[in-house]
Amino acid sequence: MSSWTGSPSAAAPAPAAVRPREDRAQADRMALSAATGKGAHIRTEDVCAWLAERRRATAVHVARIPFAELDEWRFERGTGNIAHRSGRFFTVEGMQVTEDDGPRREWQQPVIRQPEVGILGILAKEFDGVLHFLMQAKSEPGNTNPLQLSPTVQATRSNYTKAHGGTDVQLIDYFVRPDRDRVIADVLQSEQGSWFYRKSNRNMIVETADEIPARDDFRWLTLGQIAELLHEDDVVNMNARSVLACVPYRDTAPGALLSDVQLLSWFTGERSRRDVRAHRIPLASVRGWKHGVEAIEHEEGRYFKVVAVSVRGGNREVAGWNQPLIEPVGAGLAAFLVREIDGVPHVLVHARAEGGFLDTVELAPTVQCTPGDYAHLPAADRPPFLDAVLDAPLSRIRYQAVHSEEGGRFLNARSRYLAVDAATASLDPPPGYAWATPAQLRALTRHGHYLNMEARTLLACLNATAARTRGGL
């Protein structure tokens, strides 16, 4: 059999244009932005005053209402699920979870199902040779401090396709149809698996050279400025923290306790050995939860409630609406134990199973819980390392701040985020735990569903701590 080689006169095809698989200069640009504490447009110390001014100008009013006053929402016949009359946005349904490990082997609960993928996008641009990032002052009805720094774009598909009949989402085109030569980060990341059923958002950073018209609700900030603000309570919102965790910093550490292959092998083993089965069930049939006029809550008063609110004002695409929200019972806690191994900072990660995860387990902080849910239990039945974190003296705390969770779906959901020095912690942790460097975790954020939301928040905070100290983590 002969092969065709073409006629002698045929022109040879042009060779394919190849490019480096990784832009090494990009990490240097990120490092410069992280080291720049003085922005080109606003001083860091003036950001909170700007946020306060926007808070006054776009005041949001949130009131609890009975479920019967959810005029755009209804309890569906048969299932009892809470759904929007348009069939869009999200639903509150039931979930049954069975797992082979952990204190609870089987349970049922309400859960938010939102199958559409939203966009969390931050626009980047160079000013005076330094990358700046366009942050938005955006109101979320569920946040105690409603207006916080958010990504440039923070929108569900229902929002940016205007299922609500409201105004356009500003700057959305940079992220719906990005110029691939301008993409800095683009990855699907999970939301909280304890409250969402298999929810993902597209986390993006896209650079532009365009002139972006000045807007009252937007400011350009360096990574160094954002790092300072991450040390303040309730200033940088959850979605912004998730995207910031995906910034491609360079790894300057000489090595790690576990090689990348060893860390991935351990994690793959954790995913393989854990048997977590979750499926949706009608909300009306969920056992252990009572349905009231204004709340669906656990019979023992723990975990969370499903409530309804009416919202007016703010700087959203519509002027007013009502919706269901999940309200935690008590404040959360998320903490990494941190120690140096041969001079290299490491954090203790936990392969954590949550019913709503897409793939069994994700890497989580050393401790992630609502401490009040375990206060009645003896020490042996409490989460590992919880008491070590709660009892840590101030001298061992490397980072701490209280951050709000997703205010578009959760009401008054706040968690205390900590990095706690554990210089004497064992290098051979219990099953389900492993030591990893922050740089190893940053590399994993380039891929979806490896780090959970709380771990990504803490990673963004550790990056902020490193930017402040010009080294360390």
UniProtKB/TrEMBL annotation:
Highest taxon listed in the record's lineage: Bacteria
GO molecular function ontology, one term from the record: lyase activity
Chain ranges of the dTDP-4-dehydro-6-deoxy-alpha-D-glucopyranose 2,3-dehydratase domain: 45-247, 262-462
Stretches the record annotates as Disordered: 1-36
Bias kind Low complexity: ranges: 7-17
Gene3D superfamilies reported for this sequence: EvaA sugar 2,3-dehydratase subunit
Protein name: NDP-hexose 2,3-dehydratase
Biological source species: Streptomyces jumonjinensis
